[in-house]
Amino acid sequence: MRHFLDLKDFTKDQLNAMLDYGIALRQNYKAGKAHDTPLSGKHFGMIFEKQSTRTRVSFEVGISQLGGTPIVLSANDMQLGRGESISDTAKVLSGYLDGVMIRCLFHQTLMDLAQHADMPVINGLTDRSHPCQVMADLMTMRDVHGLIEGQIVTWAGDGNNVAVSWIEAAAIMGFELRLACPQGYEPPADIVAWARDKGAEITLHQDLAEAAKGAHVIVTDVWISMGDEEGTRVQDMTPFQVNDAVMEKAAPDAIFMHCLPAIREMEVTASVIDGKQSAVWQEAENRLHAQKAILAYCCGGVC
Ligand code: CP
Ligand code: NVA
Q1: Which residues does a 6 A CB cutoff place in the pocket of ligand 1?
Q2: Does domain 131-283 sit in CATH 3.40.50.510?
Q3: Which runs of E-coded beta strand occur in the chain?
Q4: Does the predicted TM-score (pTM) go above 0.90?
Q5: Among 26, 43, 54, 130, which one carries the catalytic annotation?
Q6: Within 13 Å and on the Cβ side, how many CA atoms surround 184?
Q7: Lower Cβ count inside 10 Å, N or C end of the chain?
């Protein structure tokens, strides 16, 4: 079954093939040329246990552009929200749908869905990882710098779900990743160990300015992720704000990325996110094209 659960399940060649296909789809779409429709006649579901703007709209539009029919399902409006098991849900939906994306509170829900579904399952964000986001981020790196391998990427702030997918990407695609995270907010040790085992150049830092030196990409995320509302996160993360002083340490042609939503003057200053080095709008748009490639891989036999 062609699931898309985490980047670590793929080889560099497979991820590059998806990026190539997404970029080709984007070129055709923007030129107004005929667009491949590998999802023609197929119905693709999207289950949301958490809020979403980009993932929801880019998947819905992407499925339509590929010729398929999107069906958005809020978990609260489903029997899932009243306690029906994910395994029963998986078996039932497999009789109706050709594939499903899920954004869920717990990574285990994604894994259980994939285990019991007789159709491809895509990870649209869990508490553990966000691989669709980082595919769009890799596409943006290629757009701006022309390459991914050998680049230096500095992550600032919470070692969260997005950071985990960046770690997996670094190990597979071959770029250096420096993670500047406050004590207690480091990424999970198991994924760092897995990446280093694969030969990845991954370093953990307490000083963001030091970690930013010569970097080609500076990337951050909200300080308070969905479900992380408790605690002293804002105080703890304050020294890890991406501001002009941090950007000045990076390479002169460095870009700033953020999966969004962003809170200005918290994880990033307005001067950076709205400044000339910011690639966040291109990055957000690339969600559409990267996801179409993932959908085509999972459901259309492409890539
Ligand atoms: N970056 C991202 O996944 O955005 P949404 O939460 O709006 O889907
Ligand atoms: N880390 C964030 C990403 C939002 C797209 C969250 O989980 O809320």
Answers
A1: 52-55, 125, 133, 259-260
A2: no
A3: 43-48, 69-74, 99-103, 121-123, 152-156, 176-180, 202-205, 217-220, 255-258
A4: yes
A5: 130
A6: 6
A7: N
Q: How far apart are CA 197 and CA 87, in angstroms?
A: 33
CA separation for the pair 56, 135 (Å, rounded)? 16
**Is residue 221 flagged as an active site residue?**
yes
pLDDT tens, 148-207? 999 999 999 999 999 999 999 999 999 999 999 999 999 999 999 999 999 999 999 999
Looking at domain 7-130+287-299, what is its CATH homologous superfamily? Answer: Aspartate/ornithine carbamoyltransferase (3.40.50.1370)
- Closest residue by Cα to atom 4, ligand 1, is 54
Active-site residue 287, yes or no? yes
Site of tokens 């079954």: 1
Whether 128 is a known active-site residue: answer: no
Which of 155, 254, 138 lies closest to 204, judged by CA? 155
